[in-house]
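Record 1 of the preview.
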Amino acid sequence: MKIKQMAFDKLANSMRLYSEVCSKFDRLKLVDTEEAVNNLDRAVEMKLESLHGLYDVTKNQFEYFKYADTSLLILIRNANHHKDHLLFRSWNAEMFLDDGMSKYSGGAFLLASHNVNEEKFSSQYYYKLDDIYDRIDASRDSPYLEKMMGNNNRKKLIKLLNEQLNFPRIYEQAKIELYPSKQIYINIMPIYFSAMNRVFSFFKNSEMEFKGFDSDIYQSYFTSEHNVQLESIDYKKIRLP
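->
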């Protein structure tokens, strides 16, 4: 029990630290864009790494790969951990570093986000949607295909993501509006929210006793009445100057 409590507290602590980085992002970006972007990227990676730590000690209790939200987060964590690819570069890094704004000047982008509580979700952190499929879909002939899962498990994951996160609908919307697939980005924060709601609720219902200030705060937050609508997707369109 103690090991699991520590893993939950580390996960909750990573979420608090992420919130602190977010609160400083806009102000820091005016002074040092690279530091602001890198700080936020590392904070997100820390959240994913902490989730994987929880997975390591609770995978015999909770079926993480039964659900698209938890499966996707673990996939991205593993990709970031192994670093054998050029995928999963955040929207901020792509646009604000290495002269990205000049490189993509005039380009139009479609940013998709699942809805929470029937309203637009305020927390935003985007990855290119193509990167997810380039990591797991062998038919795309990506040089960055994940090799450890095996073809059958990759196919199962693709099916899970398509059915539960409705990614094909995003591609269809982009096709209708004539956006190239490489210019579609997905907000992973609602997906993260959904995963945390699922995991914290499961262990609370299993009479898990959460220890630590951060654990208590976040378990209360994620197990309260929140409606994560993975079937409802909001779109934001951005054209760069």
